[in-house]
Amino acid sequence: MDDLAGVILRLIGAFYAVGAVFGLRRCAMDLLMTRALAALSAADPAETRAEARQMAFYIAQILLVGLGGIALLALLDLALPIFLASIGLQALYAWVIGPRLGDLGDPPGSPERARRQGSRVLFVVVTLLVAGAAHAGVLRGWQAAPWPALALAALLALALLLYAARLLRGMPGALPAADPGASPPMEEAGPLDDAPAPLHDERLRTASFILSPSWNEGGLFEATTRRPVFSDLPEDMLTEADRDAIRHWLGVFREVADPADPRRCGFSAPDGAARMASEGQWVFEQLAARLAPCPLRFEPVPWPRLSRHGATAVRLMAEQQMDALWLSDGQGQQPINPQEFGLSWKLALDIHVWALDFDAGTGWDGPDGAPRWTEAEAAAHEAEGLRLAQRLALELAATGRGHLPVSFWSESEVRAIPIRP
């Protein structure tokens, strides 16, 4: 019976140890996404900080669970205090630290919230099972464990910690957040960097506005220029409660909108437009009263976003600390934010994450000058870039810009590869 219990406990330990590796990898990618969103969108700094704190908590939690799983693999009684510490850390953050730091967690009813709650319940059940095994003497102290099992557990724990350090060290620093007032509406192509004059507070107090959803520009726009003003309005015109209501409505938009639509106005849910209208009506009424006498118009379906940049050719090319989308005007090339070139939210975000991954992988570590990437990792990054360039060509063709030559700069071949849609 003890042998069967030991096998079951080892399988559980292996599950959590391997799961920790995949969990750390997911956290690393989520960090890339968070920094990409902060750089590409009108992100609220407080919300970005809350997400960073939440991610730090998840990493600590994953490491504890992974170390507990490794201890369980060796049938060490150390697994029980590690599992209990993990539960305590989770409870401390959920009930004390998170709410005080402004991290409200996942919205009620979201699939991610349900998944995490299910994982927590399962982990509590497993911890009770581990406690029972410790009480029955199935688990042992390190002094009674055979040295090969101790050595293997120590090596696995060290490997997990080194893997976490490598992933997190490879993450680039946060890029400057995009100024929501710096990008004009993307409706007509024009010269590079042809931006209208910024709106000032005095002009905002007499302007008319539009409430309309968007992927990265917020939900409030000045009606004449359609410039995003979500972050520009003072507190007496737009309270924090108003901003929270708009953020909630934009969360609905991300659930029902089509992230692969290059015009950024399509819906993946059949009832997407109806949901945006019904769930935004109360937000509109609240804001209309708040902004009066400034007129407010409600457009629950976003208008198409096209490019504000003219170009004669387009290239996808990774450069350190640069945007990866380069436009040519016949005289030279210039990198631009991919969110400003009439691409789908998904493609623009994937391009930016690809560029951030390049920054992380091609940096140089220490005095020996060893690159972070292996040859295989560099080849995988280049293959992903080629796929992104092909998606780019397809989206340009779908938006009437198939005449623009698209190329991909290959680091391995040191040349530009033409891309056909």
Topology summary:
Elements: H1 2-40, H2 45-73, H3 79-100, H4 111-136, H5 147-169, H6 201-204, E1 209-211, E2 220-222, H7 240-256, H8 272-291, E3 296-298, E4 313-316, E5 325-328, E6 333-336, H9 345-361, E7 364-365, E8 370-371, H10 375-398, E9 406-410, E10 415-419
Parallel strand pairs: 1-3, 4-9
Antiparallel strand pairs: 1-2, 4-5, 5-6, 7-8, 9-10
Q: How would you sum up this structure in a few lines?
A:
The protein has 421 residues and is of the alpha+beta class. It has helices spanning 2-40, 45-73, 79-100, 111-136, 147-169, 201-204, 240-256, 272-291, 345-361, 375-398; strands at residues 209-211, 220-222, 296-298, 313-316, 325-328, 333-336, 364-365, 370-371, 406-410, 415-419.
Describe the protein's architecture and organization.
The strands form three sheets. This protein has a five-stranded mixed sheet, covered by helices on one side. It has a three-stranded mixed sheet with strand order 2-1-3, covered by helices on one side. It folds into three domains: 2-169; 201-298, no CATH class; 313-419, no CATH class. It has helices at residues 2-40, 45-73, 79-100, 111-136, 147-169, 201-204, 240-256, 272-291, 345-361, 375-398, and strands at 209-211, 220-222, 296-298, 313-316, 325-328, 333-336, 364-365, 370-371, 406-410, 415-419. The protein is built from ten helices and ten strands. Helices cover 52% and strands 8% of the residues. The longest helix has 39 residues, at 2-40. With 421 residues, it is α+β, with helices and mostly antiparallel strands.
